[in-house]
Design brief:
The structure holds 2 protein chains of 2 kinds.
Chain A (H helix, E strand, L loop, with lengths): L1 E5 H5 L9 H11 L2 E7 L7 E11 L7 E6 L12 E6 L9 E5 L4 E2 L8 E2 L3 E3 L2 E3 L2 E2 L9 H4 L29 H4 L5 E6 L10 H12 L22 E5 L7 E8 L8 H9 L7 H13 L4 E4 L5 E6 L2 E12 L5 E3 L5 E3 L5 E4 L16 E4 L3 E2 L11 E8 L2 H11 L4 H6 L7 H17 L2 E8 L20 E4 L1 H8 L5 H10 L3 E4 L4 E4 L11 H12 L21 H14 L3 E2 L5 E2 L1 H6 L20 E2 L3 H12 L6 E13 L2 E14 L7 H17 L4 E5 L12 E11 L2 E9 L1 H6 L7 E6 H7 L15 E10 L4 H9 L5 E10 L8 E10 L8 H19 L2 E3 L1
Helix pairs in contact in A: 2-5, 6-7, 7-10, 11-13, 12-13, 14-17
Chain B lengths: L13 H14 L3 H12 L4 H8 L5 H35 L1 H4 L18 H15 L3 E3 L4 E3 H4 L18 E2 L26 E2 L3 E5 L5 H9 L4 E10 L10 E11 L4 H16 L5 E8 L2 E10 L8 E2 L2 E2 L7 E10 L1 H6 L8 E8 H9 L12 H4 L3
Helix pairs in contact in B: 1-4, 2-4, 6-9
The chains are: A alpha+beta, B alpha+beta.
């Protein structure tokens, strides 16, 4: 949670604080919480001072303007005489003796609150010299002063053409405006971690700063000031139906309060903390929340339903507050103006059922607040409220959090309750509420209710510890030092801990450390204590040491090196690697001709484009090709990533796949296909796959690729008997579904099959000891004889034939229709002796005969 | 030139021949002329050979004297030829640049340019650095049980800390499962696909790589030095958040591991990855699965961690430091969940987002650029 913290407010609890806001921010960041940024609140108010109107005269040349003589104190540069300056002003609410905000030359103002900021200069207005400007609130960014009406005399001047009346500040003329308004302050934005709800208030934060900087920390005294003479009424009854979920409920009833705007000092602090002022009572509950970190709520007592009982002839009016679970069908209009449906999972505060008798009150009444999250609009405090009921309670964090989720509603209160607050806090907060109310809104406390149904009987919630466990930890200073890695003297450790409110008892080697109540939710073991010591010592002060000890005795996981090798080979071959989102939409799955129910579905999709985990990596590839199609380039991509396939009763299979693609306008038919076939051969060669081969796919075969690939332009890729995958052009209908107009080819291999085969074909052969005899052969054969068939037949001719290499393929002029000319380099070699030309010739002749007999080849010369 | 003019009996001095030959050789302008001269004087039927043949006409001392003179003549001419040849070669080499000039400014024969994704490159670099310290890279499921993603990491069900990870959950399915070829699966394999395990909870898309922690502890006993770099998923998408991103996670568990070892490891990484002058700083933070927990800052490369340049606030970092990631000492409850006795062993874990790290290094502002397959973006790397 990010907290906005006023430095001046913080200092109220640390009277001895000398450190600058920057120093405080830095120390807090290093020892406790990250201060993300800080800013001065008087920024933009330079050269604006308090002025006192001495004399008001008519402007000689303009009916609507006045010439005002303003006392601005000791401003030697501009003062005409004794600190008085003439200002031409059109304000309608000016009077002599009034204190106003005067922008002197050099100040930045926004004329009539509109447009760009301009710098003040001495000017002449209709022939009269004007040495400054009397400002309206919106001209100097102080709308907050007038947004909500202030008590009489404070901040009047919100109307049109009305200047800001600051008479209430009683400031000396010449006082900088920022100082007069208490805006000479720095606000820090601090990220309070979730484990520290104790620091989500000024007091907890001041305690932390005090401990870090060694400055004494003071809490303002908080005692109930009840008037013993005023008649204490016992008209409110609090019933807690679910004690485990509400370990404490305090209610303070106050009578005779006067609802109105808060004074400036109170507003200023709320504004600095990022809270909008509403009215004095609501503002006070927010102020106490900000100060103590304890959420509070105010009900208008008159609006809570009450029961009227007649007992012994006297009519008794009784107000009831019931803490219970909501009921299906119940609704509440919350303070945010929205209506929420409640049910038995939501903890609510309800009032009494007016028609029920005293015996029937349980479960009756209507919800008046969503416990710990937000109050109801109908029972909230309004201008005419006179009698209020303050609620200062403790609610179960898990219940609050679940409620927030279910309702999609959270607040500054719920954000604290869901972290788990100590049950001791309400009494401090209650006293402070009463004190502030009396001071700001008047009124008297007439009743205090304190229900502690399950105090000391902490529910076994995930935030706290198990039932019955204490808040004491047994540790030794030696263990603490070992965990931190440096020797810190025990006395120093003790100092750190006690500074934070921990109690340390026991002998030199055996400490019993007690957590303060506000840190109880964290009470654990050694690690928690070591953390406190180490952070006070300063993590940044710890030395840097490489871990000792032996690394795990285990051979490295080679799959990563293999993946890297595959990627490097493809990069070297001119391909560009892609990373695409693992998820896609249901539409894309359908477009690929796959079944949506066979894909892993997200329960809470982010958008209609992110609904399923991709069941085929090719979908991502097609989308990437489509996206880049317009660039008009050859698109050569690859991605080595997972596909996700559901399995019954276990986690989905994350199947790694390699897809290499070629797309874009082909210069000749089959270019993409043969480009990728070449890549396949290159991969097989460089990766050393044993017995790599291609195999045609029979048309009848029902493989997953049958529907995706072009039936006449696809090959199975195999290493020995293992099927790696395919290389082929995509089926035209699939491309059409994706709106891709050019041909696209994929190489699609399973990583699971490929990786274990890497290096399998790398067999060492001794270098040739005897020179080979080289021959070429060129012949014309019918085109119906496939290349692979020819090569296979040639290779089988004789063991002396060592290498067969295609070097020319030609069809056209000079070659009969339906035939093509094929030429090979051949090399004959014997492992045992140098071949004679005659021996090689014999084999060659055998070959020629075979080609003629078997394929009807005509040998060319 | 007739040989008769050189009749040895005419008492002709070989000197004259020598001079004549030398002059001719000196004036030769090409290799072919030189070759002609060599044949003329030293060839099998050349002048010198002719003189040798005539030696038979002479007798006694005269024959010996003339013989010597002829040998000297042969030697001199040979030398003159060699010298001239050398001189011509030197001359030719001097003119080589002009004679055989290529327009060397024409472009080279271009090999195709391929590109590895920047994420691959970063993963490789991090793996290599941590491998030096004995950390092994592992891979764990991206779709995992709640138990590994939360519960075993000290985040019991209902804990608010779970809210911080905008987690995607996997939906169960009521439909009939089919094989890839469209045939339904046999009846006995069931028809309802549950996304929940009776003990391990719901299936989630891992919002972090820490699900590898307890899985690694279950796989092997300490010492553990493991890194896990994998895809993570969170339900958010804006300039600094992508729904899919990569996280790095390092885990070390051994006897007597302290905070100083975490610091040493991080500083080693900072020096290796960012440069030898860089260092890290730990600040307090809170994670459920570590205690104590830290945020890791890395010193700014511009101002060197001072936050100031020539007395002015550093514009790049504003404070001397950049936030890199999170770390902490493995929480005793996490060790226990992995079956490791926290009294005997301790450890640390650290991690950060790969893209964030790269964005900081490359000054990129939109994380989504990584995964939209834009050729212009990809071709830079």
């Amino acid at each position: 949670m990010n907290l906005m913290v006023s430095y001046n407010w913080l200092r109220e609890y640390l009277p001895g604080l000398k450190a600058s806001p920057e120093e405080v921010a830095q120390k807090l960041s290093l020892h406790a919480f990250s201060v993300e940024r800080w800013w001065r609140t008087d920024e933009g108010l330079e050269n604006i001072v308090i002025g006192k109107i001495v004399k008001i005269e008519k402007h000689p040349n303009a009916d609507k303007l006045r010439v005002v003589m303003v006392e601005v104190g000791d401003v030697p540069l501009f003062a005409t005489k004794k600190g008085n300056v003439p200002i031409v002003c059109g304000g309608t609410n000016l009077f002599e003796g009034q204190l106003v905000a005067v922008a002197l030359p050099g100040a930045k103002v926004r004329w009539h609150g509109e447009g760009e900021q301009v710098e003040m200069k001495i000017t002449e207005i209709r022939g009269v010299k004007s040495e400054g400007m009397i400002c309206a609130a919106n001209e100097i960014g102080l709308e907050a002063l007038t947004l909500h009406p202030l008590p009489r005399g404070e901040g009047e001047g919100g109307g049109k053409r009305e200047i800001l009346d600051l008479t209430w500040t009683k400031a000396k003329p010449g006082t900088p405006l920022a100082k007069a308004l208490g805006l000479d302050d720095t606000v820090m934005e601090i990220e309070i971690t979730t484990n520290r709800p104790d620091a989500m208030g000024m007091i907890g934060l001041a305690r932390e700063v005090g401990a870090i900087l060694g400055v004494k920390f003071q809490i303002p005294s908080t005692k109930f000031q009840t008037n013993p003479k005023s008649q204490i009424q016992k008209s409110l009854e609090v019933k807690v139906e679910v004690p485990k979920l509400c370990p404490r409920y305090m209610a303070v009833v106050m009578e005779g309060v006067k609802v109105g705007p808060s004074p400036w000092w109170l507003k200023r602090r709320l504004i600095a903390s990022g809270v909008r002022p509403i009215n004095n009572i609501v503002d006070i509950t927010n102020y106490v929340l900000l100060e103590w970190g304890q959420p509070c709520h105010a009900f208008d007592a008159a609006k809570l339903q009450h029961t009227n009982n007649t007992r012994n002839g006297d009519e008794q009016t009784r107000t009831e507050i019931v803490v219970r679970m909501g009921k299906k069908g119940e609704k509440i209009l919350a303070l945010d103006g929205n209506t929420y449906d409640l049910d038995e999972n939501i903890l609510v505060i309800a009032d009494a059922n007016p028609s029920s008798s005293a015996k029937q009150h349980y479960g009756a009444g209507r919800p008046v607040a969503i416990a710990g999250i937000m109050g109801g609009e109908e029972t909230g405090v309004h201008a005419d409220t006179m009698r209020i009921v303050y609620e200062i309670a403790n609610f179960d964090p898990v219940t609050v959090r679940r409620g927030e989720h279910q309702l999609g509603l959270s607040s500054d209160s719920s954000a604290r309750f869901n972290k788990g607050l100590p049950t001791q806090l309400p009494e401090f907060a209650a006293a402070r509420l009463a004190e502030l109310t009396k001071q700001v809104a008047g009124g008297e406390v007439v009743q205090v209710v304190d229900r502690k149904p399950s105090l000391g009987l902490r529910p076994s919630s995930p935030l706290g510890r198990g039932q019955g466990e204490g808040n004491k930890v047994k540790v030794s200073p030696q263990d603490i030092s070992r965990m931190i890695g440096v020797e810190i003297p025990a006395t120093q450790m003790k100092k750190y801990l006690t500074g934070l409110g921990f109690k340390v008892a026991g002998s030199a080697n055996k400490w019993s450390v007690t957590f303060p109540y506000w840190r109880e939710i964290e009470a654990g073991g050694l690690a928690d204590i070591a953390e406190e010591v180490a952070r006070m010592y300063g993590y940044h002060n710890l030395p840097s040491v490489l871990p000792a000890g032996a690394p795990p005795d285990e051979p490295p996981n080679i799959q990563f090196a293999q993946e890297r090798m595959i990627k490097e080979i493809l990069r070297g071959a001119g391909l560009t690697e892609l990373y695409t989102y693992s998820f896609i939409s249901a539409d894309e799955i359908l477009r690929a001709g796959l079944k949506v129910e066979n894909a892993v579905a997200l329960q809470n999709p982010l958008s209609s484009e992110i609904t399923h985990m991709r069941p085929w990596l090719g979908i991502s590839m097609l989308l990437s090709i489509k996206k880049n199609e317009e660039a008009g380039k050859m698109l050569k991509f690859f991605e080595l990533s997972s596909e996700y396939h559901p399995r019954m009763g276990e986690l989905p299979e994350e199947r790694q796949k390699l897809i290499v693609s070629c797309a874009g306008r082909e210069e000749r038919d089959g270019q993409h296909f043969f480009g990728l076939k070449g890549i396949a051969e290159h991969l097989a060669y460089v990766l050393g796959l044993s017995d790599f081969s291609f195999e045609k796919i029979a048309k009848s075969e029902k493989t997953p690729w049958a529907s995706r690939y072009h039936p006449g332009r696809v090959l199975l890729c195999k290493a020995g008997r293992d099927i790696l995958g395919v290389v082929g052009e995509l089926h035209p209908s699939l491309l059409k579904a994706y709106g891709i107009e050019q041909r696209v080819a994929f190489l699609e291999w399973e990583a699971k099959v490929l990786l274990p085969l890497i290096g399998s074909g790398r067999v060492y052969r001794a270098p040739l000891s005897y020179p080979p005899v080289k021959r070429d052969i060129a012949f014309v054969a019918p085109k119906t004889v496939e290349y692979a068939t020819l090569v296979a037949a040639i290779q089988q001719i004789d063991p002396l034939l060592h290498k067969v290499e295609l070097f020319d393929l030609y069809e056209g002029k000079g070659v009969p229709e339906g035939s093509r000319s094929v030429a090979f380099h051949l090399s004959y070699v014997s492992p045992e002796r140098t071949l004679t030309a005659q021996e090689a010739e014999r084999v060659h002749e055998k070959l020629v005969k075979m080609l003629k007999d078997k394929f009807g080849a005509k040998i060319r010369n | 030139m007739s040989l008769r003019n050189y009749d040895i009996t005419n008492n002709m001095k070989s000197n004259n021949i020598l001079q004549e030959a030398k002059q001719a050789i000196e004036q030769a302008q090409s290799q072919s002329v030189l070759e002609e001269l060599r044949v003329k004087y030293l060839g099998r039927k050349g002048i010198v050979a002719e003189f040798f043949a005539q030696l038979t006409k002479l007798k006694g001392d005269e024959r010996a004297r003339q013989g010597q003179e002829l040998n000297a003549l042969k030697h001199e001419i040979t030398r003159a030829l060699e010298q001239r040849e050398n001189a011509m070669q030197t001359l030719a080499l001097e003119k080589l640049a002009e004679a055989e000039a290529l327009d060397v400014t024409l472009p080279g024969a271009r090999l195709p340019y391929g590109h590895l994704h920047i994420t691959t490159q970063a993963i490789e670099e991090i793996s290599r650095i941590f491998a030096q310290l004995g950390f092994q890279r592992m891979r764990y499921p991206e779709i995992d049980w709640d138990y590994y993603a939360f519960e075993s990491l000290n985040m019991p069900k209902g804990h608010p800390a779970r809210d911080e990870w905008e987690t995607f959950f996997i939906a169960g399915s009521q439909q009939t499962l089919t094989r890839p070829n469209g045939h339904p699966l046999p009846e006995r394999e069931g028809r309802v696909r549950a996304a929940e395990h009776p003990k391990l909870g719901r299936m989630v898309l891992t919002p972090h790589t820490s699900n590898g922690q307890v899985r690694e502890m279950e796989r092997r006993r300490p010492p553990i030095r493991m890194i896990n770099i994998a895809k993570c998923y969170r339900r958010q998408s804006d300039v600094t958040h992508a729904p899919m991103f990569h996280q790095f996670e390092g885990l070390l568990i051994d006897r007597n591991v302290s905070v100083t070892h975490l610091k040493g490891t991080l500083d080693y990484f900072a020096r290796a990855y960012y440069g030898k002058d860089r260092r890290t700083r730990l600040r307090p933070f809170h994670f459920r699965f570590t205690e104590p927990s830290f945020e890791i800052d890395i010193s700014c490369g511009i101002c060197g961690g001072t936050g100031e340049i020539h007395g002015e606030r550093c514009k790049v970092c504003k404070s001397g430091w950049h936030e890199l990631g999170g770390a902490g000492m493995v929480h005793p409850n996490v060790l226990k969940a992995g079956g490791i006795d926290p009294k005997e062993y301790s450890g640390f874990a650290c991690g950060w987002g790969i893209e964030r790290m790269l964005m900081m290094k490359l000054k990129l502002s939109d994380i989504r650029a990584f995964y939209i397959a834009d050729l212009n973006f990809l071709e830079q790397f």
